[in-house]
Amino acid sequence: MTSGRSLELYFVDGKPDGMLTAEVFNWTGHVLRIPRTRLADGLRRAEAGQTGVYLLLGEDADGPLAYVGEAEDMARRIGQHAREKDWWDVAVLITAAGDALNKAHIRHLENRLVSMARTAGTMRLENGNQPGGSSLNEAGMANMEGFKDTLQMVLPAIRVDLFQTGRRSADQSDMRSESATPRPVFHLAVPRHGVDASAELVNGEMVVQARSMVRPAWVGNPKHASNYRELHEGLVEKGIILVSDGGAVMAENYAFSSPSAAAAVVSGRSANGRTQWKLPDGRTYADWEAEQIEGAAP
User: Fold this and answer.
1) What is the mean pLDDT of the chain?
2) Residue 75: is its pLDDT beyond 70?
């Protein structure tokens, strides 16, 4: 079981959508998010002049867009981007206490972040070729991988989802603590439409299992649950839902934020996952949840 971590957010402007810093206890990293409307003030901060990796986030005529870069003086580099790139509206600066990152560190981190963003596929990248790696030794690479793992916790907490993906490996889905109770396996079947899917609840996510048979296309009202329709279409485009001969299967385990999100994508239409996902004995997800809540009551 993953240990809890403590994240400290400081809202520099006293506003949730303004400039903020993010730090984690016992982590050397430091994250600064700067709205472009506060860019001049943000780039005057000491950490902006340090060595680090930065993200530019925004959108152009084709939708959300991002850029991942590195610099030994981020304030100067981002100032150049402000003159040359019009599409971005948020900059995220990633540094370490005491300006501890060097050129090899940030080249390694930039390379890993670009790879992760491309794998996640949640936003287009303006980056052209894959940036080169670095000459870090084995210990240095291990340190930066640990740095990156904590960063993956921090960024979603400040609404940076560039690296978030629902893909789950078999190893991730099988992880259980020794004290954990067996996870229930839920099923959703619509035989006349070729739907026969299984899912497990893992760390608060509904993970639909690979080889589940799902609807090959969205058939619900396009005006309803448009976010789920876009999610279904995106999974087809990425090959996570493999379509062939009028049917479709999940090519890999994929995590959804709720039972209804999972049910909608599996069914190809709006769906109440709390009633449609069922255990082998016929109990619905809602029935199972009610039992868990009752059992947890003092």
Assistant:
1) 88
2) yes
| Residue 103 dihedral angles phi and psi, to the nearest 5° | -60, -40
Total-model pTM = 0.73
* pLDDT (tens digit per residue) in 277-293: 999 999 999 999 999 88
Taking the C-alpha atoms of residue 134 and residue 131, their distance in angstroms, rounded to an integer, is: 10
The C-alpha atoms of residue 113 and residue 137 are separated, in whole angstroms, by 19
Rounded distance, CA 137 to CA 154, Å? 26
Residue 181: band (very low, low, confident or very high) from pLDDT cuts 50, 70, 90: low
What are the structure tokens assigned to 234, written together? 């995106």
Regarding beta strands 195-202 and 205-208, do their DSSP bridges make them parallel or antiparallel, or are they unpaired? antiparallel
Q: Which amino acid is at 11?
A: F
From 173, 201, 218, select the one nearest 259 (Cα to Cα): 201
Q: Which residue is it, tokens 């599996």?
A: 266
Q: Which residues does 204 contact at the CB level (< 8 Å), separation at least 6?
A: none
Report which of 106, 97, 113 is spatially closest to residue 77, judged by C-alpha positions.
Answer: 106
Domain ranges of the chain: 7-157, 170-296
- H helices of 62-164, where? 74-84, 103-120, 138-157
188/199 Cα distance (integer angstroms): 8
Q: Is pLDDT above 90 for 267?
A: yes
d(CA 165, CA 150): 16
Two tokens, residue 72: 């030994």
